[in-house]
Amino acid sequence: MHPTMFRETTNAATTPAPARPRRGWALAGTAGGLIGLVGIFATASLGGEEQRADNAGYVAAIADGAAYVWAHQVVCSLAIVCLAIFAAGLRRHLGAQEPAGSLVPTLAATGVGLVLVGLLIGGGISTQLFFDLGAAGEVDPDTIAAGTTIFATMSWLWGGIGLTAGAVAVGGFRHGSVSRWFAVFSAVMALLVAATQLAPVQYISLVPAGLWVIVAGLVLAFAGPRPVAERR
Fold first, then answer.
1. Is-contact 214 30, C-beta < 8 A?
2. Which residue has the higher pLDDT, 4 or 153?
3. What spans are recorded as compositionally biased (Low complexity) (predicted)?
């Protein structure tokens, strides 16, 4: 009798504890959304819009904005790292929840990837613009003005998140890969982002897209995987 009890105790003691869900990737998404939403609004406008008809006057008005340009580069770089981690984690998470062969994980990650491209270009122009503004009296103002157009445009284009939110919504409605309320929220945000892409207000897509990424990161970090019984 004693050996039997010993074996049972040993087996119970050596049973591995269930693995804790990895949440860092989701929280990286929330961080990336916050950095992008707040940081881009704070750094991607140099002012001087009243001088846009005169490049020389416009460049003179923004000549002291080099610090904002540098800050914008840092914002874009941090957002890129956070959102890249989020995209990879989102694809893995949805791949575990969706049926085999589903396009939802790939489409969701692709949408975030499109935003990464915009941030890479939008942040990349900052280096040249930073040095051009520092030598504003020696550089053709037409060249500087052209650079500010890219600077004030590319990093705002978060329309790809509409694809991500839409894919997540479809997965939630069809397969239960996310909770129903989050699927509804994702569908609404996807429609809002789509509306910005069909009208000449593409810049403002940053607002619904950034909000979706922030909420999605928090939801996916703390909700955990969906039970099989709740999926379809």
1. yes
2. 153
3. 7-17
